[in-house]
Every structure is written in structure tokens, then in C-alpha cells.
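Help needed: design a sequence for this.
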């Protein structure tokens, strides 16, 4: 199982933001840490990449590019794209 943490510090995403905007959860769900970080859970890197692409399509459909929802989605995409396992997977494929 692949777990990608989106830190709440320096980010527009917290677990409460995730719930407030009804953002789509990854296939294996989401956990909240004590410090309000969001942990995205995936079966593997391929599933994480597919989820990031789903989030990109969702963000492209939002009109307000400065909304908290848009910024939170962007933070999730960046966390996935910058995850060391996802980066290694992309380099190998």
C-alpha cells in the first residue's frame, strides 16, 4: 500500500477542508493525522497517478482558480507528483 501525506502546514489542504469541499477520495480512502495532515491511500503508484489525473480534470473544470477548493486540489496533485515512489515509477516507465 502506498500512503502519500499532504502536510497541512504550508498547504491549503487540511482534513476538514477535504471534507468541507467533498473532494473525491482515492480508491483506498483517506486518513487524517493528529496535526490535520491528509494521508491519501493507494494500492500502488499507478493508482496514485490515475487519481492525480482525475484531480487535474476536476480542477480544470473549476471557474475560480483562486478558490480554496482549487488550491486544495493543487496541493494534493503536487504531493502525489512529488512523492518519491511516484517519481521513481515515472522514471522507470
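Sure. Designed sequence:
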Amino acid at each position: 500500500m502506498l500512503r502519500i501525506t499532504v502536510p497541512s502546514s504550508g498547504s491549503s489542504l487540511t482534513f476538514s477542508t477535504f471534507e468541507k469541499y467533498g473532494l473525491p477520495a482515492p480508491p483506498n480512502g483517506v486518513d487524517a493525522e493528529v496535526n490535520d495532515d491528509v494521508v491519501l491511500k493507494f494500492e500502488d503508484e499507478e493508482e496514485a497517478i490515475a487519481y492525480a489525473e482525475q484531480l487535474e480534470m476536476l480542477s480544470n473544470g473549476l471557474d475560480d482558480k483562486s478558490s480554496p477548493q482549487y488550491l486544495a486540489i493543487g496541493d494534493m496533485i503536487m504531493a502525489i507528483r512529488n512523492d518519491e515512489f511516484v517519481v521513481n515509477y515515472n522514471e522507470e516507465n
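The mean pLDDT is 91.
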